[in-house]
Design goal:
The chain is an alpha/beta fold. It is built from 12 helices and 14 strands. Helix 10 crosses helix 11. The longest helix is centred in the C-terminal third of the chain and has 22 residues.
Amino acid sequence: MTRILVINPGSTSTKIAVYNDEVQEMVANIEHPAEIISQFPDTISQFKMREETILQYLADKGYSISDFSAITGRGGMILPCKAGAYLVNETMVKRLSENPITEHASNLGAVLAYELAKTARVDAYIYDSVMVDEFEDIARISGMPKITRTSASHVLNSRAMAMKVAKKYSKKYEDLNFVVAHLGGGISLSVHKKGKIVDIISDDEGPFSPERAGRVPCRSLIDLCFSGEYDKRTVHRMLRGDGGLKAYLNTTDAREIESRIANGDKYAKLIYEAMAYQVAKGIGELSTVLEGEVDYIVITGGIAHSKMFTQWIIKRIKFIAPIEIMAGENEMESLAFGTLRVLRGEEEAREYIE
């Protein structure tokens, strides 16, 4: 029996799960009230509060911290790293605590895992950090020397679902080529070439999504920025948070939009189908990175539950490669299963070095 505790911090909540081998025993989303969160000057200072909340919740459910074989946190804003597992060490904790690349709730994942694991006298891990970077050099060129393309996508779920498809067909992930589309609040696409994510379309350079504008015409954006009508923060919100479906239809809920379409709302259908159209364009774009040698196209994320939306994509890309729908976010499972592979000796955890 291998029991793993998984910790995935969000801005106002901490999601935890307990896995016994591949079986999820418990999952919970522990909410942190705004009046408590507002007492802290930054994310990392919330550490003790969140640690105590996790321990109390586990105790209420009959778990002791000593019950776990390993503890895994969501990978935060460390320096660019390889895909897969990393042992959480003092260097990583110091980076996330004192000098993270960006302020983000996920920075608490490794720190919480590390401190709890010390108490449990087991190892702490992260798996498929958001900072995974395995780009080929040619993929980094943007067209402007002052701007370098960087690797930032939904690595955790995208890679896990590609691995699951490979396993479904009794093949190795490292032997196959995939294009993966992650459809969530933000949409990103990635190309997996024989086990490495060598290029992506990030959520700000590709399809618009429920709350993000995606790729927009540059000259028009520049004009908007210098029009004098909007400040920098407002423009950022127009691109991330208030863009996409929210800007066009005043909602981010795909189910609500599909209900409006069923009731004859032609404008809602136009916008919703346009989002699928752009996803299909992105999949086609990344297929050229593999020179057409695509083994599988994987469509994942929450919106992949929608048959209407995925069928719009499929009709445009079915000529490229076989398509697998792997709906859902699957983050907790991805973290747990990655750690389980390490504990079973199927993968090796890397050491984080700066």
